[in-house]
Amino acid sequence: MKYINYYNGSTTYRIKKMDTSESKYDRKSELEAFDDTKAGVKGLVDAGLSKVPQIFISPPNTSTNNSNPTTGQFIFPVIDLEAINYNQINRKKVVEEVRDASETWGFFQVINHGIPSDVLEEMIRGARSFHEQDTEIKKQWYTREFTKKVVYNSNFDLYSAPATNWRDTFFCIMAPNPPSFEELPQICRDIIVKYSEEVKKLGRCLFELLAEALGLNTSHLKDMDCDKGLSVVCHYYPACPEPELTLGASKHADDGFLTLLLQDHIGGLQVLHNNRWVNVPPTPGALVVNIADLLQLISNDKFKSVEHRVLANRVGPRISVACFFSTFFLPSSRLYGPIKELLSEENPPEYRETTVHEYATYFTVKGLDGTSALQHFRR
């Protein structure tokens, strides 16, 4: 076997050199070697890597070369939330916009959402600062035990995914049982706490609008604890020497109820709309909102949890902060199935009941393999 060793002054990275004459390679060993460094993709880039290692190369059917993303054919939905504060007529208009976007796109951007721009900017800086601090400091949070409240690693599905994604991730569970202030990384703990509180307020507002869009009582989704859990996930996508060979995040849908995404100016997020990949423009001050699997499940397919992905890029790092509303791995026996008020003889339940824990566990074990976890829970 042919290997290239990279040394960045503290860690040696031993990555297999691609050899097209070889029909097989020991993928598991390479994954373990990468995992053992605890330095992530950033560690490879810092060490001077100029070629994408084979573990990162996407299967041919997921190649970005033939994806033909659209740039002007579709107008990505943008919803101004400021209007809901004026009168009921304006609120009704916003609810209609939320309904239309949730049914047809599964995605929309919100502006005038109430989170100050300086908080958004500080959150991006905080996420970047965590990933760019010394590896030896970051290693104390490196783990694959996803029940921990504070986790840093590269690719949650490293050992099950068809290809490794070009990104590193730090996440923390911020509700309902957050870690103590001292458990959070010192370099970004203040902004994570501040940003989480802002996102929780915005989340409550969005769940009210979504409930009204379903024709339900304003508090219906909140009464179901859809806004009870919150995880803050900070992604770091280093500049990639061969972005056409890999992805920042493979095609997937999210497994919770709702996701709020803060992204920097670089872009790369794409949504699958009408069987075409559509670029999501990185709009300053806006947040991206997307319906997640469990909201599609309880709405009985009324709202759509749509597949999306992130492209790798020669420019970087790209920073994004995804906030997931879900209780994930918290022990709870509460069952979630299609909301009874939405069902009828013409609209029978499409899904069996499940717990959030069962759904999240299935999603995590399955990994980002290009298939929908929802299919496993259909009747």
Structural account:
With 379 residues, the chain is an alpha+beta fold. The protein has one domain: Sandwich (Jelly Rolls), CATH 2.60.120. Helix content is 27%, strand content 20%. It is built from nine helices and 14 strands. The protein has helices at residues 27-37, 40-46, 88-104, 117-132, 135-138, 189-213, 220-223, 293-298, 356-366, and strands at 3-7, 12-16, 78-80, 107-111, 150-153, 168-175, 230-237, 247-252, 258-263, 269-273, 276-279, 287-291, 308-311, 318-325. The strands form three sheets. Strands 3-4-12-9-14-7-6-5 form an eight-stranded mixed beta sheet. It has a four-stranded antiparallel beta sheet with strand order 8-13-10-11, with no helix packed on it. A two-stranded antiparallel sheet has the order 1-2. The chain is globular, with a radius of gyration of 21 Å. The termini are far apart. Mean pLDDT is 90; it is low at 1-13 and 15-23.
Describe, in short, the structure shown.
Helix content is 27%, strand content 20%. With 379 residues, it is α+β, with helices and mostly antiparallel strands. It has one domain: B-lactam Antibiotic, Isopenicillin N Synthase, Chain (Jelly Rolls, Sandwich).
SSE blueprint and pairings:
Blueprint: E1 3-7, E2 12-16, H1 27-37, H2 40-46, E3 78-80, H3 88-104, E4 107-111, H4 117-132, H5 135-138, E5 150-153, E6 168-175, H6 189-213, H7 220-223, E7 230-237, E8 247-252, E9 258-263, E10 269-273, E11 276-279, E12 287-291, H8 293-298, E13 308-311, E14 318-325, H9 356-366
Parallel strand pairs: 3-4
Antiparallel strand pairs: 1-2, 4-12, 5-6, 6-7, 7-14, 8-13, 9-12, 9-14, 10-11, 10-13
Helix pairs in contact: 3-6, 4-6
